[in-house]
Amino acid sequence: xxxxxxxxxxxxxxxxxxxxxxxxxxxxxxxxxxxxxxxxxxxxxxxxxxxxxxxxxxxxxxxxxxxxxxxxxxxxxxxxxxxxxxxxxxxxxxxxxxxxxxxxxxxxxxxxxxxxxxxxxxxxxxxxxxxxxxxxxxxxxxxxxxxxxxxxxxxxxxxxxxxxxxxxxxxxxxxxxxxxxxxxxxxxxxxxxxxxxxxxxxxxxxxxxxxxxxxxxxxxxxxxxxxxxxxxxxxxxxxxxxxxxxxxxxxxxxxxxxxxxxxxxxxxxxxxxxxxxxxxxxxxxxxxxxxxxxxxxxxxxxxxxxxxxxxxxxxxxxxxxxxxxxxxxxxxxxxxxxxxxxxxxxxxxxxxxxxxxxxxxxxxxxxxxxxxxxxxxxxxxxxxxxxxxxxxxxxxxxxxxxxxxxxxxxxxxxxxxxxxxxxxxxxxxxxxxxxxxxxxxxxxxxxxxxxxxxxxxxxxxxxxxxxxxxxxxxxxxxxxxxxxxxxxxxxxxxxxxxxxxxxxxxxxxxxxxxxxxxxxxxxxxxxxxxxxxxxxxxxxxxxxxxxxxxxx
Length: 552
Description:
By secondary structure, the chain is mainly β.
């Protein structure tokens, strides 16, 4: 949902920050947001050119002149560390090597940092000091007049980082300007600007490492209404009145069921720090609650387990800092497989939290959840290069939340329900919330779902995937507020196996070859728990900035 332009006073900024923390990010609070839907450019100061708000599908800020420099600035001169993002379209140029740009820490019309999208097929990170420009970094990117691009520029301390469409990235360090306004600019070019967002940044915003490509105009997807359908058992007596605060689980991991009120992990037990394989494997297998802090890199052996190592109930496994890693093996959360067990056993593994870990190089899954395990929270991890799934959820497991993770360098990413013939264990279970995950060239199964009555997928960033979401075997997928860039099939219900169900609302698709497929009705997730959906136009900025390790 687009919102009216606003400068955040201290009170409003606190309110917005709290809402973003409820949604799961500790790094970003909205300072300014203008989509020009009110039909004016109040709050902007212009210099040069011809500026007006006009229609380009939706209202945009247009600079129509091509004979000189032109700038428009907004915001506070006291802003220091932030990310500014905007959609930019060059519409006409006068000569060669012209540009449209995004400004940060602007002191005046002649002094600022800027990210320039140039017609010579480059993106340049530059600074202008008293009217004299210096190039700090540049990268190749295809630039086509008449195409929309999403530019993002982060300034944090002396670190500067820019990106195009979440792809082509440039970075530098410079101490010239410490604070300043944001803005947009053109050089002998006409351009349209839209969806300008400024989010407070605690540190430089990471971006995908791939080269960008020109984007089509983002289009919010159609929005069929969600209709109630029978909910799975056990059902909650009613959601709590507000989303959980920062650092707490949310989504399905907080829904009461199976004798468990919510997900607390190792709370109430001792906290230990491990830095060897032997210590790690010892503590994850112990009975009772433990918070296990992982320091540095731990190599998991293959041995007789194919590299999968069992985690028992009531555990929090959390990495310290940004360098905690598990390599060579994976984590198994669940009892041994048995087709004969078709209802949750009393000793099912439950109440497990895995946070702030990089896990890679497993010969099987990176994380596997199975055999009616429940109340699991997988949050702020970096998952890559597994032999099978990055995160598989199967065999009757239920009430999980998967949030703020980065998935990359992986093919079959996250499976919910492993087989078309496993309805006896899976039907009515496998309820999962996926939110604010960065599916960064993770090719498929993001997720791929069977039998679940409700999987809630919101505010995820899909970047260059063959397909995003697949719903089969009458699964119910509620898909909202996501941003799909260069995804062949964003959402599918006609896939391998019986058809699924999917309801979608307010998603943005850019350079996608197919729409999100919809079918049937799906229970609204608000029936089970409260949550806050961020504007999908902000997802390419806030999700890479907040997802993965070192962000909690």
